[in-house]
Amino acid sequence: MTELNGTPAPPPSSAPPVAPPPNYAAAAAPVPGHTLSIVGLILAFISPIIGLVLSIVAKVQAKNAGVKNPLATAGIIVSIIMTIIAIIIVIVAVSLIFSQCAALGPGVHVISGVTYTCG
User: How far is residue 31's CA from residue 71's CA, in Å, rounded to a whole number?
Assistant: First the structure.
């Protein structure tokens, strides 16, 4: 070993030089309310009222973070449409039952395997 300026030289190394670690980009921050908007959109078809509430909460979270969340908007729209369809179905079903009862009169009636109880 040779000395440089009074200090011993480091021993020769047979290992290759170590490369610096790669510079990876930082992971993108998750969109606030993204998971909630997916759940809200799915529930919009199964239970529209719950889907509507979850989609609105997801939309508010995204708005407060300053990002857009189109899934939350879709969940709100689908929930409203499905709620309107459910209301129409209930109104039609109730009106059919009452119209049957008006024609049949009070009592229990079985028509085509369907039991109607008219009071």
Answer: 11
- CA 61 to chain CA centroid, Å, is 13
DSSP summary character for residue 53: H
3-state secondary structure of 97: helix
Which one-letter amino acid corresponds to residue 99?
A: S
* Residue 77: Cβ within 10 Å count: 14
Distance CA 1, CA 8 (A): 7
For CA atoms 18, 23, 29, 30, give the dihedral sign. negative
- Kindly give the parts of the chain with pLDDT less than 50: none
- Model pTM score: 0.63
Task: Write down the pLDDT at residue 74.
Answer: 96
Numbers of helices and strands, H then E, in the chain = 3, 4
